[in-house]
From TrEMBL, chain A:
It comes from the Bacteria. One of its GO terms (biological process) is response to amino acid. The lineage of its organism: Bacteria, Bacillati, Bacillota, Clostridia, Lachnospirales. InterPro entries: Dimeric_a/b-barrel (IPR011008), Tscrpt_reg_AsnC-like (IPR019888), Tscrpt_reg_AsnC/Lrp_C (IPR019887), WH-like_DNA-bd_sf (IPR036388), WH_DNA-bd_sf (IPR036390). One of its GO terms (molecular function) is sequence-specific DNA binding. Residues 65-138 form the Transcription regulator AsnC/Lrp ligand binding domain. This is Leucine-responsive regulatory protein. One of its GO terms (cellular component) is cytosol. It comes from Anaerobutyricum hallii.
From TrEMBL, chain B:
Belongs to the class-I pyridoxal-phosphate-dependent aminotransferase family. Coiled coil: none annotated. Transmembrane segments: none annotated. It comes from Anaerobutyricum hallii DSM 3353. Residues 29-378 form the Aminotransferase class I/classII large domain. Its cofactor is pyridoxal 5'-phosphate. This is Aminotransferase. It holds the Pfam family Aminotran_1_2. The keyword Lipoprotein does not apply.
Amino acid sequence: MRHEILRMLENNSRIDLHDLAIMLGTDESVVLEEIEKMENEGIICGYPTLINWDKTDTEKVTAFIEVRVTPQRGQGFEKLAERITNYPEVKSIYLMSGAFDFAIFLEGKTLKEVSMFVSTKLSTLEAVAGTATHFVLKKYKDHGMILIDKEPANRMKVTP
Amino acid sequence: MRNPLSDKVVQMKPSGIRKFFDLVQEMPDAISLGVGEPDFDTPWHIREEGIYSLEKGRTFYTSNAGLLELRKAIAHYMYRKYELTYNPAHEIVVTVGGSEGIDLALRAMLNPGDEVILPEPAFVSYLPCVKLADGVPVTIDLKEENHFKLKPEELLAVITDKTKILILSYPNNPTGAIMTREDLEPIAEIVKEKDLYVISDEIYAELTYGQDHCSIASLPGMRDRTIIINGFSKSFAMTGWRMGFATGPELIMQQILKIHQFAIMAAPTTSQYAAIEAMTNGEEDVQIMRNAYNQRRRFVLELFSEMGLKCFEPEGAFYIFPCIKEFGMTSDEFANRFLREEKVAIIPGTAFGDCGEGFLRVSYAYSIEELKEALGRLANFVERLRKEKNL
């Protein structure tokens, strides 16, 4: 049940609760209770909307930053990571295996703003040993959703 | 000038769906519940194998029966699903969709005048294909109160000395009915006792929502009396690839292969490579799609129950077959008016045999949003009819 609810919500967080209950063959109250439990347990972390900003007038720049870190004694990566999460510019931060430690997705209004953030805020953190900034040029798919225009479905309307 | 045409073909009734199709064509803004194919795209890893085979230049004929690798994958699949053993060398033919398999099996087995028992409502191809193969179709009107399953007494009632083949098609298009092992057992007994053969169209076998599909060929003594028609269209959302297969005893399959070899040569090569990928790595896709269909099935059933439209709970395929007899209209009248007034295409039950009168075929191979819109319009229409008729 949980798994099915999560799968449905992951695709459409605005799904009608009544519809969802019918589709899962159960009662609305059961679904609601399960969702609330998962919210409390931190399994469901929020219901943000996926926006293709490129189609709006709003200027947005996304960058992916590789960050190399000197882990601090007794704290590992956690303390630094926690600190970085506090910047509203930081959309995501992941601890990575491989050649660098943190992968950070940043959002800003302009290239300059993002660059400034990296050079003045991120690079100057004590444990940060180095960064590499990559700007996103175009988004084709995000959070499982295809953002480029697709050919409309061409199924015939009536078939045996 | 001489009449250039075959009397047999001229006498064939055009498909009832065709007529309706033309009507819908004139209404480009109409939405539909009339589609007999999945709304999912073919899973990408399957499409990619097709593309890859083209890149590799695999653009030649395959052997007539299909790529051996694909036939082996099919044999493995049939064993995994039904514990049925077919020799990939002689007992499996890859066809151009399930439809070709139906035609081939009938042509390979029928002599003029042989009777073929055809329970209806049924897929539109069986009856014309029986006639083209010089067989005589004998229809059975299945009953809604039996959930459109074939009952042993119904079968016994139509068997004559000339009966040779029984066509079974479960999970069923258009009713969504299934037949369980217990339902099939008495049928199999009659088939053996009366020395008949079965053409079992199991194209929707992967789409059952209660228990797993049971093939009649897997019942004792039935393997060598059954030709199974199956394919990739519905289970793997591959309708446009035209990929089907037929399995059965060597004696019959070799004759089927002969016709296929002369009429078709071999199924499309690109599609065959994609089909290998579907058979070997497609199980999870099937599960995901089955789950989505089941959710929609529950959704549509609930909406019908809210409308007060009577229908039995279908357990297979992606169709629901509601009854509209309360309105005192024919299926055709209902579908035509519904199309004109609410701009939704829905197929009248009569397109699948005369006994489909009083029913509609509703496909739920649509997104929940599309279903909501179309069924909302149906609810409006039904309400209007009830007011008109003071029901």
